[in-house]
Amino acid sequence: MNTLKERADLVAEEAKKLNKGVYNDADSSKIITARRELQAESCKLATLEDAIKKSGLKDGMTISFHHHFRGGDKVVNLVVDKLAEMGYKDLHLAASSLSDVHKPLIEHIRNGVITRISTSGLRGELANEISHGLMAEPVIFRSHGGRGSAIASGDLHIDVAFLGASSCDPLGNACGYSRSENAKSICGSLGYALPDARYADKVVIVTDDLVPYPNTPNSISEHDVDYVVEVESVGDSSKISSGAIRDSKNPRDILLAQQAAKVIINSGYFKDGFSIQTGTGGASLAAVKYIRNSMIEQGIKASFALGGITAHMVKLHEEGLIERLIDVQSFDKVAAMSLRDDMMHKEVAAYEYAAADEPGSAVHYLDIVILSALEADVNFNVNVLVGSDGIIRGAIGGHPDTAADSALSIIVCPLLRGRIPCVVDEVTTHITPGSTVDVIVTEYGIAVNPRRPELVERLRNAGLEVVDIHSLKDKALSIIGEPEPIPFGDKVVGVVMNRDGSVMDVIRNVND
């Protein structure tokens, strides 16, 4: 029997003869039928179980996932459940991030299906259990840029990537949106999946919208895809914009956003052609709304907005205030639809977004970034991963990447959360080095890193209250007193990697 390539060559040769008039109309129908049969045979469709078997996955290997569906993701649990059913053990799960919805992984860790995890963040009950020592091996935490670099360099080698896609054709052309009327799950950019698709040994696309060939435009090319699996649902789009990326109506968040906007406007970087990124957190996201009027009044336009793109950014872009959007992760459906329809809205892979060693990395050209924090210390170090109780409850994301490379990094955080101080002597876990942080905005004043005296002068000249960061720490303690020390144990449950692959810090288990 002829191989697939030999059959393709035969069909092509017959088609050439047809075009030269060698055959009649009846022969033409035969050629068209042969072509359709060839396309059907060459497609990569498989059941999930068959795709796993054909991938060559073995115990001890590394599987990867992306988190573009955030709290609505269904792919991780679906795939790992199937792997457990098939008897796999000792797998390394390398996800760009994990959240509350991935609680079922706890049982798979206990049963030995998953023995190692690499990720940017953990949340929910899974994070709580790991913080208390669930795993024998510590979780490896990398920033988004650090993960992209590690995959590209081979430091994080992926054997099989399972990547959820909002639409895909039978040959593997996939993306995070769809032009089909049957579209079920829209996530927008697949920026965190692109390194996996490019460098994994085998790539399995999991989709709930199988569309006719060719699915264009596409984020992931058929060239990088080995198998396509159609399932009932890959994700709940309504849960993408949730938690830390929801609009905040909290008066304190609004105040912080307004103060951050004033810092931007008076920083010296608020000029025509500036670039900007906002991190997660209500205050940092909302700050964009408060610079809009000043942009209009002063005739200032931004060259690009970067990172996780929101409806706020899309609105400014559509108003002509931001020329281009560079999107590694769409934070809501408005952003996802903009990516689909707007040529000036660009999708970017994680290593092109924030890798330290990528010459064209977008963060190298970033002027202003506004970021949130769980806590900051008097040396301007920032923690966005471990809560004041020692429980992992966040994600590194692109925090250290953008702070390091931007011209102006602004951290917004309240002085207190409940009875917990957010400005402390030393952060619980070092995530973003103080040497890369320029300004910390609280409702009790603005602290500027001593290495940026020109910023102090500009902000004070604008009438903003600039205070010494030690006074913020003292203010917090005067209100709530000295907190009890966290009851950490001796077991290392997490290792935080720096952007360059060195160890930044470790996280120890919490004793109840």
> Helix content range of the residues, please?
25-40%
| Beta strand % | 15-25%
Give the distance, in angstroms, between the N- and C-terminal Cα atoms.
66 Å
Global outline: globular
Question: What would the average pLDDT be, to the nearest integer?
Answer: 92
Gyration radius, rounded: 25 Å
Structural class, from secondary structure content? alpha/beta
**What low-confidence regions span 5 or more consecutive residues with pLDDT below 50?**
none
Q: How can the largest sheet be summarized?
A: 9 strands, mixed
Tally of contiguous helical segments? 16
Number of strands: 27
Question: Care to describe what's here?
Answer:
It is globular, with a radius of gyration of 25 Å. 53% of the residues are buried. The protein starts with a helix and ends with a strand. It contains 16 helices and 27 strands. The longest helix is centred in the first third of the chain and has 18 residues, at 25-42. It is of the alpha/beta class and 512 residues long.
